[in-house]
Amino acid sequence: MSRTIGIIMIVIGVAMLIWTGFTYTKKEKVIDAGPIQVSADKQKSVNWPPYAGGILVVGGIIVVLTAKKTT
């Protein structure tokens, strides 16, 4: 079980190293005056530092190497 968690950590860590964030579009109301509503699309971004992916990769490797073998 812990070996699987380690492999998942490695995969997520590599993905975080390749993609350092993502953006998404959110509709926000600009004007809300009774029956008149005006909304605009605003781009939001989520970013994480590249070292976070590196930490996950190293942690995943440690978990995989220290996991007990079960038969």
TrEMBL record:
It comes from the Bacteria. The keyword Transmembrane applies. Keywords: Membrane, Transmembrane, Transmembrane helix. The keyword Transmembrane applies. The chain crosses the membrane at residues 7-25, 48-67. This is DUF3185 family protein. It comes from Mucilaginibacter ginsenosidivorans.
